[in-house]
Amino acid sequence: MTYLSPLGYLLGLEGAALLRGLREGTADQAFVEARTAEIRGLLDTPELARAEGVTAVPGAIGTADVYQDWAAYYDEPGNQMIDIEQPVVRRILDGLPVGTALDAACGTGRHTAHLHRLGHRVTGVDASPEMLARARERLPDVDLREADLQRLPFPDDAVDTVVCALALTHVPDLAVVLAEFARVLRPGGHLVISDAHLMSSYLRPTLPRRPGPDGRPTLLTEYHRPLSAYLSAALPLGFQVRHCEEPRRPRHSPDPGAAPDALPTWMSWDLRRWCPEASAAALDGAPVVVIWHFQLGDDGGK
Description:
By secondary structure, the chain is an alpha/beta fold. The chain has eleven helices and ten strands. Strands 5-4-3-6-7-10-9 form a seven-stranded mixed beta sheet, sandwiched between helices. Keywords: Methyltransferase, Transferase.
């Protein structure tokens, strides 16, 4: 069971802001005193003291349930993780030879569409029928299939490029999926993956979702990994690193007047408006995603 408290989250932001400021040399006396005073103020705020937290059950909701809900608005503007990730992935794809491509966990087909525009013979696969339905609306002439990442519907050595974007955080065994990518790639083929960054998972912890079968709030199980985990899974398969990038959240000036009049009724990122300066100091400029470009060796890792 995980207990998520509005006050606890705000105090965590304050602490992260202080620790990051000390580490990076930006925490002058005024900043530290401001954080200390704000922490006292938060502790003395009756509304926060009375606010009940949420006790959530980890693992009581599945990825399929979450993407069923996300499909309707996944492509809407304002998804900051996509806004940060997409330009980097596309820059890498733009430099690859045109050939046969697979968008693994294609979702609504955003990278599939880009590969198609570049001239690749592209296939998209995803385990979510709701996300695939959105992709088919966007790409009616592209081959889109429902399939699991651990059992791709392709023979060995079938594709030149594999893209897997923002999906591996839902995969418990990274090595199994990368081995499947290596299987379907031709020798010398390219693998481009993006994933949620481990640091981001600490600064923006997973929020509770709709009640599960027993009526209690749920937490989706996610697998956030250090960079070494990707190398440990990829290098034994014959993959070679061509590029690694950790795009960061843009820095902005906090709005001191952004605090809401009332607490949200559910654990929400709107809580950050209760301490905008600490929130900006903790979150801005921190890595959001990690993006890898691997190339399979000429022997195909065999």
